[in-house]
Amino acid sequence: MWNNNLKLDYLADTLISQKHLVKNLIGKDNPFDIFNSKIEMIRLMNESFPSCSLEDKYKILYIISKACFKETDEKAQLVWSGPDVAGLPGRDTEILFEELVAEAKQKIIISIYSISEYASKLLNLLKNRALQGVYIEIYVNEFESKRHYFEELTQVKNNRLFIYDYTGANNSTQALHAKVLTVDDKKSIITSSNLSYNGMDGNLELGVFVNSIEKAKEIRAIFNTLLQKGYFKKVK
């Protein structure tokens, strides 16, 4: 029984750490198909409840989602990247970046220090959102050294996407080091993670997700003020 409790604790920790994925799974049109998935929480459910029907397993997920994962009034959540360890609090940085960009309805502001090919999915998502009419500002440190990553974005032919290069450094040791995403003047991520494999997956990185209109507007005001005072130049 003790060993079984350990397995159930591990399953519970995994469900909690991936609760937003649980919510997405609950909304699927063909819910029973999810139990053929290789997602860790589904593998654990299949292993822990081998005699349950697919319908019963789905009911278990549904009950967990309804009973335990209701939205709270909490304004801030931890976001992190790093080792795949069950039970860690907070949300996955890479997944949250993509979710916020995908759900944006009006505006996206993002600042980038370091980037690699690993971020190609996010960059493609930004391009598509701009083509769909979302207003996007991208602030980049040393744009010329990263120009090849933004090739498709620079070719977007509308007035919805703007890229700015940081020109405010007084010497080579100074940089735009902020890693920030803010969406619709409401939801923001402030993180130590760069848009690279190590930043989003390899390194242990920590940040915070803030659901606050006030803080999102303050972030926007910082970039607007620096832009007006010549700390950035428009690339596109």
Structural write-up:
There is one protein chain. This protein is an alpha/beta fold and 236 residues long. The protein has helices at 2-17, 19-26, 40-48, 54-68, 93-103, 120-131, 151-154, 197-202, 213-228, and strands spanning 76-81, 91-92, 107-112, 135-140, 161-166, 179-183, 187-191, 205-211, 232-234. The protein has a 9-stranded mixed β-sheet with strand order 2-1-8-7-6-3-4-5-9, with helices on both faces. Helix 1 (2-17) runs antiparallel to helix 3, helix 2 (19-26) packs across helix 4 and helix 5 (93-103) runs parallel beside helix 6.
**What would you call the structural class?**
alpha/beta
Average pLDDT figure: 88
Q: What's the total number of strands?
A: 9
The CATH architecture term of the largest domain is: 2-Layer Sandwich
Radius of gyration: 20 Å
As for the CATH topology of the largest domain, it is Endonuclease, Chain A
Number of helical segments?
9
Low-pLDDT residue intervals, each spanning 5 or more residues: none
Instruction: Determine the N-to-C terminus distance.
Output: 62 Å
Main pleated-sheet profile: 9 strands, mixed
Percent of residues in beta strands: 15-25%
What strand order characterises the main sheet?
2-1-8-7-6-3-4-5-9
The tally of structural domains comes to 2
Helix content: 40-55%
H/E element string? HHHHEEHEHEHEEEHEHE
- CATH class group of the largest domain: Alpha Beta
Gross morphology: elongated
* Full CATH superfamily name of the largest domain: Endonuclease Chain A
